[in-house]
Every structure is written in structure tokens, then in C-alpha cells.
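Chapter summary example.
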Amino acid sequence: LLVYGHMDLISPRSLCYTYAVTQQEKDNVMTTVLQAKETIDNAIQNFKEGPTFGYGTINAINFAVNSEIQLRDYLIGLPNNHELDICSGFLSYLTTELPAEDSYGLDTVNAIFQYELGNLEMCAQLLEKVSMTNSDYSLAQLVRRAVSAGWPASTFATMRQELAPKVIAHLNEIGENLIA
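The structure predicted for these 180 residues follows.
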């Protein structure tokens, strides 16, 4: 496997690739679903201790979340194990290094977190950003409808509690699948 750019190691099993020079090379940069989950877990823990990971980790997480819906849903469940404001800060940190058109998955999950935190203006800004760059993104459309309908913020926490174990079980089932 030939990778251009640099690799950022944050654990012995978890290789995080930064960027590839061409689309064809990008298509050849692969990791498994479980490696991506481990990268997310290591990165949020690292973030809580004072972020020292670089663009390679950020890009790897973003690529994985945009490529595998179960990893995006895993992010939604992070507040089951970490404080909600930490999770929101983590996603904000990740997206500061990404082009707006690439961060739609992270921004949508962060919009959910912002809504739960009562930061309705930030939630609306994130959803608007996603609609400007990826208007067909179904999760953003769902969140926008929920916010417009005035769902209680606790609805997302309840859904997370119910769905997170199912998401983790499914991740374990598909864990060896490559993300490409």
C-alpha cells in the first residue's frame, strides 16, 4: 500500500492516513471499520488530555465518517461515554482543519450536539453550512426537520441510548470491512 503525505500513528494498531495526491491514490488508502473506530476512540481521549494529533488523524476520521454510516452513528453515541460538551468541542476541533465541503458528517453530528446543549444558533449555522455544501445529506435533513418541529433536545439523548448498543454491535460485525 503506497500512501502519499504523512502517516500519524496514535496507537500501535491504528494507522491514520492524511491525504493522497490523486483521487486514484486516495481510493487506495484503506483501513478497516474497527481501526477507524479505534482511531476515533483514541482521538477523543487524546483531545480530552490536550490534542496532539495532527491532520492525518483528522482526515482519517472525517474520511471514515463520510464513508461508513455506522461510524457516523458511532460518533452520535460518543456522549454515552464522554461529556456532551467535550464531544462537541472534539468535533469542532476536527472540522477547523477541513474544507467546508468535506466536513458535512462531522458538522451534522455536531449540530445534534449543539441542539442538545441548547446552542440553537450554532446548530442552525452548522446545518446551514451542510446544506450549502451537501444539500442531499439525509441526516442533516432529518436533524433540520426535528429542530423545526421543536423536538425536545432530550429526544436525541434517548435515541442515542437506544441505538448506540446496536451500532456498536453492528460495527463489530463489519469490523474487518475496508473503508475505501
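To summarize the output: The first strand starts at residue 7 and ends at 9.
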